């Protein structure tokens, strides 16, 4: 089965043509063609994604990218329904509906977070031999949540952020440091540099929010505020040396990683799962990956860890196609019709 998928939930316009087949252990996915156009540089001056601009860019870019897919053949269309920025989501949905109607093909509305989760389980194009239950830590610019999957495609949110998402915290603190958007990779670069050059002895001390809350929930807005005050109390970034700023980035990454590891430990104790996976843009963070890898290796050796390929962690349409194919090939597709509507706050558990 070949699916043409569209992703426009945030600031990436993605189209992908992916073929899925059943194998004895699960599924094989072959990406025939994939196009991705990032608008991040256009949003950079705003320090975050500007919805009206995102909508306009998707509207402009979809037909341009689609030209390369026009003469391809496929059996179904998939599109991100939510969560995301509604004006942006609508652009993908309208475009997908048009293609589906013109070609008389079924249309699937896909949950963006489910797509992050499913695609993170895929290894070298294969989604095979995955033992349930699965616990996923989804960390992106808009979300931070633990999702428990006891049955395929049935999700329970067992912990989430009470305020900001972890990616948002990276992005906002990066902005305070004068770094460009998206800030996660920039903070990470500085933090690595600081550790490599032995700048571990620094004056910074940021909080580890909700570490002892006894729940699997997170809070990152306090960390963001603490970062703001710490920089102000130090005299502002203009007065700080490059080394001190790099050390600050390392302290922030440390604080975030420590919270993620500690909450993951609790979630793993609570749920007794067989497979642990991370997904979403922040899952590209090398330091966080290493820390979680060490946690599983040292404390949960019987849990299988699936770390997503770096090419799939950020928003893209391949993940939308893979989620749609996994569903369709399992007979669990959620076929939509011309009434398919964008849902900005679509929950994975609904
Ligand atoms: O999943 P994603 O591409 O978009 C959303 O669905 O939100 O996630 C984007 C987020 C941004 O906040 C970005 O700063 C963060 O992922 N990010 C990172 C890294 N790469 C991307 N955060 C920390 N370290 C990274 N290496
Ligand atoms: Zn995403």
TrEMBL record:
Q: Which residues does the record give as substrate binding sites?
A: 138-142, 171, 184, 285
Record localization: Cytoplasm
Write down any Gene Ontology CC term.
cytoplasm
List of residues binding Fe cation: 112, 116, 315
Per the annotation, how and in what number is the cofactor bound? Binds 1 Fe(2+) ion per subunit.
Q: Where is the Gcp-like domain?
A: 36-321
EC assignment: the record states: 2.3.1.234
- What's the catalysed reaction? L-threonylcarbamoyladenylate + adenosine(37) in tRNA = N(6)-L-threonylcarbamoyladenosine(37) in tRNA + AMP + H(+)
InterPro entries hit by this protein: ATPase_NBD, Gcp-like_dom, KAE1/TsaD, TsaD
Task: Report the GO molecular function annotations.
Answer: iron ion binding; tRNA N(6)-L-threonylcarbamoyladenine synthase activity
The source's domain of life comes to Bacteria
Q: Which GO terms describe its biological process?
A: tRNA threonylcarbamoyladenosine modification
Q: Which cofactor does it need?
A: Fe(2+)
Question: What is any Pfam family matched here?
Answer: TsaD
> Which keywords does this Swiss-Prot/TrEMBL entry list?
Acyltransferase, Cytoplasm, Iron, Metal-binding, Transferase, tRNA processing
Read off the SUPFAM superfamilies from this record.
Actin-like ATPase domain
The similarity annotation says: Belongs to the KAE1 / TsaD family.
The free-text function statement in the UniProt record for this protein reads:
Required for the formation of a threonylcarbamoyl group on adenosine at position 37 (t(6)A37) in tRNAs that read codons beginning with adenine. Is involved in the transfer of the threonylcarbamoyl moiety of threonylcarbamoyl-AMP (TC-AMP) to the N6 group of A37, together with TsaE and TsaB. TsaD likely plays a direct catalytic role in this reaction.
UniProt cross-references to HAMAP family, sorted A to Z: TsaD
NCBIfam families reported for this sequence: gcp_kae1, T6A_TsaD_YgjD
* UniProt-recorded name of the protein: tRNA N6-adenosine threonylcarbamoyltransferase
């Amino acid at each position: 089965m070949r699916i043409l998928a569209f992703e426009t939930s945030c600031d990436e316009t993605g189209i992908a043509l992916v073929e899925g087949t059943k194998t004895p252990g699960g599924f094989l996915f072959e990406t025939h063609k994939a196009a991705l156009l990032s608008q991040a540089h256009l949003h950079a001056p705003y320090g975050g994604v500007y919805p009206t601009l995102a909508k306009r860019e998707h509207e402009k870019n979809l037909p341009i990218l689609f030209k390369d897919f026009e003469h391809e053949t496929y059996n179904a269309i998939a599109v991100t329904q939510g969560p995301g920025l509604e004006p942006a989501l609508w652009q993908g949905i309208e475009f997908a509906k048009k293609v589906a109607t013109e070609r008389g093909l079924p249309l699937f509305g896909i949950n963006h977070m489910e797509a992050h989760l499913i695609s993170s389980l895929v290894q070298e194009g294969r989604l095979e031999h995955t033992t349930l239950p699965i616990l996923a830590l989804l960390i992106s610019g808009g979300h931070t949540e633990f999702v428990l999957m006891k049955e395929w495609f049935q999700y329970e949110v067992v912990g989430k952020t009470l305020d900001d998402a972890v990616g948002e915290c990276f992005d906002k603190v990066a902005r305070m440091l004068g770094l460009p958007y998206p800030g996660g990779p920039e903070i990470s670069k500085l933090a690595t540099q600081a550790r490599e050059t032995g700048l571990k002895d620094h004056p910074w001390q940021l909080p580890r929010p909700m570490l002892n809350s006894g729940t699997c929930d997170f809070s990152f807005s306090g960390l963001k505020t603490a970062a703001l005050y710490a920089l102000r109390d130090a005299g502002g970034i203009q007065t700080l040396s490059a080394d001190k700023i790099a050390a600050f980035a390392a302290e922030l990454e440390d604080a975030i990683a420590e919270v993620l590891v500690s909450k993951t430990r609790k979630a793993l104790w609570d749920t007794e799962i067989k497979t642990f996976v991370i997904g979403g843009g922040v899952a590209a963070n090398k330091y966080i990956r290493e820390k979680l890898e060490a946690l599983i290796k040292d404390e949960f050796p019987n849990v299988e860890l699936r770390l997503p390929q770096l090419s799939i962690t950020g928003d893209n349409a391949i993940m939308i196609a893979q989620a749609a194919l996994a569903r369709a090939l399992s007979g669990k597709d959620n076929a939509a019709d011309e009434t398919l509507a964008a849902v900005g706050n679509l929950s994975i558990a609904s």
